[in-house]
Write a structure and sequence with these properties.
alpha/beta, 2 domains, about 190 residues, 8 strands, Rossmann fold, Tetrahydropterin Synthase, Chain A, 4 helices, elongated, four-stranded parallel β-sheet, about 30% helix, single chain
């Protein structure tokens, strides 16, 4: 049986749900405005607008009654899933590893890399730029610049740099953070916090 979906639009501009559902293999049955005038028997996914008033509460109650087998997604999380963002920063820097084994003793001396930082904020509260890319990227750049100073002076591994940035990000954004730091976009360390 072909899966069908009904999508409730928050406003006329929310057409991205239609394409996303089709990409996931659902047939989109119908789009309705905020007042939700549903007339067909549909099963599948129901995306309801964020609960911001009596009108939406009535729409949700009606949908629950008429589509008991449907899966309901709350649009306050994200369109069809949980939102997260990732920013990337590239910085030339130096570091060293004091405890490098004899086979790679050259890593004990300060050496240059193009460090690539991928910084992700998970569990966003909504899908309309809860955290703005450019502002997050600016913050990551500033914090990683300071980390690189320590990496060159004191010696830090990619794991240590990623961990430091993860902790700072968790404190600032109060969300789950994933940070990956790579050397020359070749080998990398990842920390989740």
């Amino acid at each position: 049986m072909e899966e069908r979906a009904i999508v409730v639009l928050r406003d006329e501009g929310d057409l991205y749900e239609q394409e996303a559902l089709r990409d996931m293999g659902y047939e989109v049955d119908l789009f309705v405005p905020r007042k939700m005038a549903i007339r067909s028997e549909v099963t599948g996914v129901v995306v309801v607008p964020e609960p911001c008033g009596k009108e939406n509460d009535e729409a949700l109650n009606w949908a629950l009654e008429h589509f008991p087998n449907a899966q309901f997604l709350d649009e306050t999380l994200a369109p069809l899933g949980e939102a997260s963002i990732t920013v990337e920063v590239r910085k030339v820097g130096f570091h060293h590893w004091k405890e490098a084994p004899a086979e790679v003793a050259y890593l004990r001396a300060s050496h240059r890399h193009v460090f690539v930082v991928r910084f992700s904020i998970e569990d966003l509260s909504h899908n309309d730029r809860d955290q703005e890319f450019h502002l997050v990227q600016k913050w990551v750049t500033e914090e990683f610049d300071a980390i690189l100073v320590h990496a060159e002076l004191l010696g830090m591994s990619c794991e240590m740099m990623a961990q430091k940035l993860c902790i700072l990000g968790r404190v600032k954004y109060k969300s789950s953070i994933i940070c990956e730091v790579s050397e020359d976009d070749e080998n990398s360390a990842m920390v989740r916090l």
